[in-house]
Amino acid sequence: MHALRTLGIGSALRGGGRADIVAGVTLAAMAIPEALGYSLLAGMPPVTGLWCMLVPVVVYALVASSRQLVIGPDSATAPLVLAAVLPLAALGTPRYAALVALLSLLVGLMLLVVYVARLGVLADFLSRPVLTGFLAGIGVAVVVSQLPALLGVETTARTTIPLLVDLVRGLDDIVWPSLALGALTIAVIVAFERYLPRWPGQLVAVILAVLLALALDLRARGVVTLGAVDTGLPDFMLPLAGWRELGPLLVPAFAIVVIVIAQTVATAESYAFRRRYRVSPARDILGLGLANAAAGFSGTYCVNGSATKTAVADAAGGRSQVVSLVMVVAVVAVLLAGTGVIALLPSTAIAAVVIVAGWRLVDVAGLRSVLRVRPWEFAVALIGAAGVVLLSITYGFLIAVALSIIDRMRIAHVPSDAILGEVSESGWHDVTKRRGALAPRGMMAYRFSSSLYFPNATRFHERVLQMVDDARTTPRWFVLDASAVSDVDYTAGQTLLAVADELQQRGVVFAVAEVTDDLRELLARYGLVEKIGAEHVFDTLDLAAEAYVREPGSRP
Questions:
Q1: DSSP calls for 313-362
Q2: Backbone angles phi, psi at 306, to 5 degrees
Q3: Which bin fits 442, alpha (ψ -120 to 50), beta or left (φ > 0)?
Q4: Per-residue buried b or exposed e for 504-528, using 16+ beta carbons within 10 Å of the residue's own CB
Q5: Distance from C-alpha of 423 to C-alpha of 262, rounded to nearest angstrom
Q6: How far, CA to CA in Å, does 243 sit from each of 88, 101, 536?
Q7: Alpha-carbon distance 451 to 246, whole Å?
């Protein structure tokens, strides 16, 4: 009952939940066509997309903290499933399906480890610009992957560049009715999203495609349909087949975990802020871990928090997880009675649904914003996107993570710094930017705007000695403003000891100010406090300046 109250389900049920029920039906109308397409994107039978929206969704709804977040198959993770498993097993084989289920279980277990060990910071392995570029690369790969179905052209290629080459070679084989029907489906979906966003545009588009295909007998003109679709509910199993392939699945599973955490937490917090309630990212990660494990046990692929589905539910008035549970009921009804209609769906219409969803991953406005503010990070984002498109999603992810780490190390290697002076009562400022900023004569105050660790320790060492040696008169005290120093690794700790020794050789007292209790304890462990004396470690720069002025021989 506590979980129901937290999620808002109890209040929704007491109030009749009419808005949530309507939102759930609306959500199902949008999500079902998408799920069929995402299944093909993951290399799985269409029905598995519907299975994704059963047990995993119920598990998440009952465990997680977000009242509104909708989970399910997703355009960002489905291609990762295909990229992970295809090198290990042929499409359509029982082994492929078993490995997909194993991958889902592996993702679920990793998320549970993240929850237990409180490692939600794994999402920070990708900076926001690099994540934007990585998802844009996935979006382009998704769009290209659906072009054969849209055009009615056959190809065996699975990666982006070979697939494009095959399409160019097969231009003479385009099935024009297929292309026309797919283009019409895209146009209808886009029109609904722009002018009637509360309406289930995907459902309207695919129903229109089915009616046109039947009325014009497009199957006789080369338009392919999905064909027979399994009915009924999933069989539960222990996904251990192919466990020897765990090694090759680890990196893709980790990539999915990072994407799932980043997208889910961001979406859940966004709607919690908008609707004024609190969420617990840890509980949402727990819910996702259990949901993905449930996906593995029910023989389907990974699930993720969906910004698109959540937006549809929110726009339709949904305010609790009752929306997701109503969607589950609708999916069960389709599985038990409606798969005959699904069999009539033209493949080009499903490809159109996926193309629109894939293109949503290309955040043009976000990339433009990065370019305007941080051109270097824009270049990094493009490199990550290119890695996905030109190599593979797995390699693209590794490139994206490496670029994020390198970019962070680059920034930390050359942080901003400044010689400081005091401006009357407004505090200490960069003497080159604030007129009249002065320190007591003979005292040099220096701010290093980063924690100290191995990438920037050498630069710190060089900068300190350079400023002391370049001063017109050698300072009597050199005071490090450590307000931006939250940590000092071992390499940097030894560097601080070396700096203290070399300043002492020059007749300069080394002092540290703006020191927190944790930093003071760390500096003591390194032996710096003992070397420079506890009387030269200060809570504030003002106290350091006062101590310097009181010292015999100093002049203000």
A1: HHHTT--STHHHHHHHHHHHHHHHHTHHHHTT-BHHHHHHHHHHHHHHT-
A2: -110, 115
A3: left
A4: eeeebbbbbbbbeeebbebbeebeb
A5: 43
A6: 12, 11, 59
A7: 38
Which residues, in sequence order, are bridge partners of residue 512? 480, 537
Which residues, including other chains, have CB under 8 Å from residue 292's CB and lie 6 or more apart?
Answer: 56, 104, 105, 107, 108, 111, 260, 302, 303
Bridge partners, residue 446, by sequence: 419, 480
Which residue, among 361, 384, 402, has the nearest Cα to 145 in the 3D structure?
Answer: 361
Cα–Cα distances (Å) from 236 to 286, 335, 433, in that order, read 21, 16, 67
The answer to whether the CB of 106 falls within 8 A of the CB of 354 is: no
CA distance 118 to 39: 31
Domains and CATH numbers, the chain: 2-241+250-308+315-409 (no CATH), 417-550 (3.30.750.24)
Q: Which stretches in the chain have pLDDT values below 70?
A: 1-16, 121-125, 241-243, 338, 412, 424-426, 434-437, 552-556
Residues 6+ apart with CB under 8 A from 379: none
Separation of alpha carbons 163 and 42, rounded Å? 16
Looking up tokens 């066509």, which residue turns up?
33
Per-residue model confidence (pLDDT) at position 2: 44
Closest to 78 (Cα-Cα) out of 37, 133, 119: 37
The token pair at 543 is: 């106290």
pLDDT digits (tens, 9 = 90+) for 362-407: 999 999 998 998 888 898 889 989 998 888 887 888 888 888 778 7
